[in-house]
Amino acid sequence: MNRFEELFGASKPIIAMLHLKSDVHMDMASRAKQEIALYYDNGVDAVLVENYFGSVDDCQEVLAYLQAQYPDKPYGVNVLGDWYKAFQLAQQYNAAFLQIDSVCGHLSPGRDPWFAKELACARQKSRAAVLGGVRFKYQPVNSGRTLEEDLQLGMQRCDAIVVTGDGTGRPTPPDKLYEFRKTVGPFPLIVGAGVTNLSIEPTLRDADGAIIGSWFKDNHKDHGDVLAEHVREIVQKARRARSPSNRTGA
Length: 250
Description:
40% of the residues lie in helices and 15% in strands. The protein has 9 helices and 8 strands. α2 (28-41) packs across α3 (56-69).
């Protein structure tokens, strides 16, 4: 059993994204605290803090709040473009997991061995589970390897593979999810983008969890405001798909 499975078991978690938005009506910290309460109160399994609209300092502020106010809830961090910092923040603020948008496939054959070594060293020193993207949205493919080869290496570099479509809020193609599942077998597989109220149940029949941000917003866009009704709807539908027998490849 790897760290992701130790953390979530067979529950097929719904992980809610915190984009760290601010605007003229509400500052980042106040909005983040409001969104955290909306997410946990309406049944999500974990929140993921990401500097999508915010900064690394914003991530630290929100993680400190989570550590103080929600010590018994799982939460994670993704520092876009700086996976070293994600490990540091996970350690500093006791985050249960972190996301790295690409753990395999994005680097050239000459640079990949160095990355693999550094990542392995960071994982060895960390208690956090690593959710790792392969052929992730916005990431280049420079490895010169096949998808199967990158997935096989990816499974050695993380505790759960994350699969997406080609952009934030855009659907993860079912055939791509199927292809990933066929290769990774029972290894934890997370859909990281584009999940909606219509796709959540079939998604969780084939995947082991979902990271959701845009669909939870009032306008289903990344820049919107989290709406409790949208969170409840996804959570209720997820519960119907949360049987261990629904885990393809298990």
